[in-house]
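Fold Annotation — chain and its backbone
Next Lines — sequence and tokenised fold

***
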Amino acid sequence: MTTWKRWQDYLTVLLGVVLFITPFSFGATSNTTAAWTAYVVGVLLVLGGLWAASTKQANTTEWVPVILAVILFISPWVVGFTAVGAIAWSAWIIGVLAFLSAGSLIVMSGRTSMRPTPSA
């Protein structure tokens, strides 16, 4: 694949935007811990998705959204906002989706690199 052509990177950017607006849409901006987690990780997902999309091939840059997705998934327990149901569920769902999206590129790039090159 080439630069700016992978739908998985655009999905990662979209998931970051959705995560960023989640506290506003559910009216949970008063819980600062949960809201700031959504803001910071949402922005980082957007930046990570754009960075991964700007590369020519899916390579090590795809690990950034995967790591952010894992951090997002465990953040309700680590930071302590499991009681804020809307943002906690958003973190879990968006974390899984971002992991699957970026992780699929890592798996696919590993398969294509293991293919034998045709002899000329």
Remarks:
- The chain has a mean pLDDT of 86.
- The chain is about 75% helix and 0% strand.
- Residues 85-114 form the longest helix (30 residues).
